[in-house]
Amino acid sequence: MELKNKVAIVTGGGTGIGKATSLALAKRGAxxxxxxxxxxxxxxxxxxxxxxxxxxAIAIQADVSKDQEVRGMVHAVAEQxxxxxxxxxxxxxxxxxxxxxxxxxxxxxWDELIDVNVKGxxxxxxxxxxxMKNNGGAIVNVGSIAGTTGLGSSLPYAVSKSAxxxxxKSLARALAPNIRVNxxxxxxxxxxxxxxxxxxxxxxxxxxLLQSIxxxxxxxxxxxxxxxxxxxxxxxxxxxxGQTL
Length: 245
Ligand SMILES: NC(=O)c1ccc[n+]([C@@H]2O[C@H](COP(=O)([O-])OP(=O)(O)OC[C@H]3O[C@@H](n4cnc5c(N)ncnc54)[C@H](OP(=O)(O)O)[C@@H]3O)[C@@H](O)[C@H]2O)c1
What we know:
Blueprint: E1 7-10, H1 16-27, E2 31-36, H2 40-52, E3 56-61, H3 67-81, E4 86-89, H4 107-135, E5 137-142, H5 146-149, H6 155-175, E6 179-186, H7 198-204, H8 216-228, E7 236-239
Parallel strand pairs: 1-2, 1-4, 2-3, 4-5, 5-6, 6-7
Helix pairs in contact: 1-2, 1-8, 3-4, 4-6
């Protein structure tokens, strides 16, 4: 699928991997709705950067864990930009808890992570699917190697990303043949996700087969290729500089 003139929503599209994806999609000629929940300035700066580079974009607020907000956002984007062809389900949160500290995992933490990371991606896919049904569309969910290794910033985060991988396969079945659904599972990526833990991230680099931490642009480029690839659905694609081999 050519991305030129396609309308894309990128959740959490104003920071980190989401921002790099918004910019990469716009470079390929897509019209981008940059979603944010709190980071309004980042989303607006991303839109300004796209417009300055000759592209088209809007910023739009919605908390992806709230179904009504997601439906409102999707409706507003379709009204303003004509339709929706592409969705990048990138928005997620985590909590840092040692893996073996099971007592620190409260119900609130479970609920928060599952609501944003899993149900948020489901709500967004469901809301865009009615617009994609007739003309076709493509969705990429951002998973994580935490979802395949079980090891991550916390147990609920790793489990939420396993659920994202499962959601990808189930949605690929549910939405075929007109809508393709795939997942990119990054290893460590240098973003604000590691804020306050930069040293831990940098210690990882020499241990990776490719000896450098992936950039947001590396992941964004894979997300764009996956959206383009017509013969791909239900796949979890690891992009981790050899971290898990
Ligand atoms: N960096 C890594 O090492 C790494 C590794 C594997 C996977 N990932 C995944 O990559 C994705 C992007 O992370 P990142 O590294 O780019 O970090 P990031 O900059 O913190 O990105 C997270 C984005 O999610 C948005 N978000 C969070 N809760 C939201 C909500 N309820 N509604 C709407 N948006 C929400 C944030 O926007 P607001 O501030 O506006 O809420 C932010 O833009 C995530 O899915 C993460 O799990 C990252």
